[in-house]
Amino acid sequence: MSDLYDTDILAWSEEQAARLRRVAAAERLNDASPDWPNIIEEIESVGREQLHAVESLLVQALAHMLKAQAWPESLAAPGWRAEAIRFRGDAADRFAPSMRQRINLERLYRRALRAMPETIDGQPPLPVPAECPVTLDALLSEE
Amino acid sequence: MSDLYETDILAWSEEQAARLRRHAAADRSNDAIDWSNVIEEIESVGNEQLHAVESLLLQALVHMLKAEAWPAAPAVPHWRAEARLFRAQATNRFAPSMRQRVDLTRIYRQALRAMPETMDGQPPLPVPAECPVTLDALLGEA
Fold first, then answer.
1. Is the Cβ of B19 closer than 8 Å to some Cβ of chain A?
2. Would you put residue A95 in left (φ > 0), alpha (ψ -120 to 50) or beta?
3. Could you tell me if A93 lies within 8 Å of chain B, comparing CB atoms?
4. Chains A, B: CB pairs < 8 Å
5. B12, B22, B41: residue with CB nearest A46
6. Tens of pLDDT along A68-97?
7. How does residue A28 score in pLDDT terms, banded at 50, 70 and 90?
8. Distance in angstroms (rounded) separating the CA atoms of residues B52 and A49
9. Looking at the complex, does the CB of residue B7 fall below 8 Å from at least one CB of chain A?
10. Is A49 at the interface with chain B, CB within 8 A?
11. A10-44 burial by CB neighbour count: b if 16+ within 10 A, else e?
C-alpha cells in the first residue's frame, strides 16, 4: 500500500480517498472527528495535481515539437527540439501507470495545435498532422 | 472546523493531522488506510502554504533591499513594483497561525545573502543589518 504511494501516486490517492470515504461514513461523528470532507478532497487532489502536471508537460512537449516541424529552418528550431526533450523527460518522471487510461492524447494534441503561433519571423507554418502522430509510450520513452 | 479550512489552512492542517493520528491509533480495524502517508499529505497542505508565504516575503525583501542599495538605478521603479506584488501575494496566502512560525530575522538574512555584489558596476549603499520592517508592516498595504 505504501508501495503504491511511491509507484503510482494517482492510484494511491484515489484508493485512499475511497477508503477514507468509507471510514467517514461508518464513523459516528463528534467534535473531535477529523474534517473528513476536506481531508478526502486534499487526498484526492494529491493525485489529480500530478495528473494535471503530466498533461501540461505533454502539451508543452507537443507544442515545441510542432513548432520545430512547422518552421524547421528557424534559428530557434534546435532550441525547440531540446525543450521538447526536456518536457518529455519531466513528464516521464512524473508519470504513474494509472494515468495511462486518463490521459487523452488527442485532446492534448489539439491544445498544442491551438497554441501554435500563426507565423514565426513572418513565415507561415509548413503543414503539420491534424491527428497526433505519436503514441503516449513514444512520448514518454527516451527519444 | 471547515471554517478553519478557509480561514487558516496551516492551523487546519496541523489540527487535522493530530486528529488523524488519534483516529489511526484508536482504530485498529482500518488497516486498509495508509495512515502515515495520509497524515503526511495533510500536514504538507499547511506546510506548503507556509513555505510559499516565506518565499514571497523573501522575494519582497530582496527587491526592497535592491531599491535601497541602488536608489539611482533605472530598475528602481520596477523593483518597488515587484516588491509590492510579492507583498500582496504573501498577504493573500497568509494565515494567522503563521505569525509565530515565520522567522522574519532569518528571512531577512537570506535576502541580504541574495543581494548582488554590484549593479551596473556600482557597489551597494549601506543597508540595515537587521530587518527594519515588521511582519505586520510587510503584510499591510504596501
1. yes
2. beta
3. no
4. 53
5. B41
6. 999 999 999 999 999 999 999 999 999 999
7. confident
8. 17
9. no
10. no
11. bbbbbbbbebbeebbeeeeeeeeebbbebbbebbb
- The answer to whether A20 contacts chain B (CB < 8 Å) is yes
Give B81-86 contacts, CB < 8 A, sequence gap 24+. Answer: B83/B142, B84/B142, B86/B56, B86/B57, B86/B59, B86/B60
Which residue's C-alpha cell is 495533510?
B42
Per-residue three-class SS string for chain A: CHHHHHHCHHHHHHHHHHHHHHHHHHCCCCCCCCCHHHHHHHHHHHHHHHHHHHHHHHHHHHHHHHHHHHCCCCCCHHHHHHHHHHHHHHHHHHCCHHHCCCCCHHHHHHHHHHCCCCCECCECCCCCCCCCCCCHHHHHCCC
Residues of A with CB below 8 A from B4's CB? 35
Question: A29 and chain B: CB distance < 8 Å anywhere?
Answer: no
Reported ipTM = 0.82
Q: How far is CA B11 from CA A28, A31, A47, B1, in A?
A: 24, 16, 23, 10
pLDDT band at A2 (very low <50, low <70, confident <90, very high): low
Query: How many Cβ atoms from other residues are within 10 Å of residue A47's Cβ?
Result: 23
Q: CB distance B38–A43 less than 8 Å?
A: yes
| Residue B28, pLDDT score | 65
Distances (CA, A) of A138 to A83, A97, A133, B77: 16, 15, 10, 48
In chain A, what residues touch B9 (CB-CB under 8 Å)? none
- Single pTM value for the model: 0.83
